[in-house]
Amino acid sequence: MSVELRRASRSDAQFLLELVTGEETRAFLGRAPASLEEVLADIERSEQEPESFGWLVAEADGERIGSASYRVANERNGIVEGGRLAVHPRFRGRRLGDDLARAFQRLVLRELGFHRLEIQIYGFNERALAHAERVGYVREGVKRKAYRKNGEWQDAVLYAMLEDELPA
User: What is the dotted CATH code of the domain comprising 3-165?
Assistant: First the structure.
């Protein structure tokens, strides 16, 4: 099953809202919209500012399976921050998240031409930490007690990938 990415459209809004606010996903995401209006605003921003922000829908065999997003963190140096990488619970356990992540890396670093893709993962999210290393991100460090989540301070583990680290 091949995973393809495309820019989110208004017709994806309900799917994306359910994905990022779902019980099995929300606990692991940082910044994510919480209402349909916020989702639509992010989709509009993605359409209007594709060079600096993108919310993408992942599809496999013509069916929506997940999402990923990027935002330019440092334009001059070509640094992008990735986020909202999520696979719908119906499709978990098939390594589609790995395929989604690799497609996302190729899109951001090759097709869009950025130099560096950075991600941050909550320290308690062991599954996502293993996933990041499995798909080729390099662990660069930990931001200790960087974010407040559910009333407690959480570490953020920093990962990055450079364009020249992408497999051929």
Answer: 3.40.630.30
